[in-house]
Amino acid sequence: MKAVILLSGGLDSCTVLYQALAEGCECYTISFDYQQRHRRELHSALAIAQKANVIQHQVVSFDLRQWGGSALTDDSIDLPTGRSLEEMSQNIPVTYVPARNTIFLSFALAYAETIKAERIYIGVNALDYSGYPDCRPDYIKAMQEVFRLGTKQGLEGKPVKIVTPLLYLKKAEIIQLGNRLGVPWELTWSCYAGGDVACGVCDSCRLRLAAFAELGLKDPLPYAQNSN
Description:
The chain is of the alpha/beta class. 36% of the residues lie in helices and 11% in strands. The protein has eight helices and five strands, in the order E-H-E-H-E-H-H-E-H-H-E-H-H.
């Protein structure tokens, strides 16, 4: 079974790739260079794809900086740092990139239909404290309907299926799953700050560090500042 995996280079997407491999899929990975602040993640995506021996790894490039609207695409917007998990859960953060997953899934769908893939795997998570609107079950359900109505495969009764293995897992549970699958955490990248070493204080770093700490495990990545 052919599957397209959205691979950012982060903890979640890497776990999803290894889940797809465990399910016997022929994996084609796709990453996106949208001129994000943390383009360092693309190096991790490539390393992970190579480690996993995927069939093909591609990077799609476009520039969302021209629109901005997010701390990840506009350097004039400060990244939130040092926030508690409770603070992260209160509002949609400035790290939300408008319609990002819709853009990503559209590219992945075009690729999947071209190679006649049956599945698209994406590491969205409804329980993540970030609360992005395009990571929720109702959004995925709506996009699945788009896949059914807007493609040749869909009209022929065989729409590409969106697979979301992490949708209802807490971050610590994702790490436990990844450990069972043999995910190489040392190759992954979660930091939003854009440096060569993970900052340890942005929301993404704090979520990751808190999950490893909850399990009594040490994150193999070095951090400029460990917030836990």
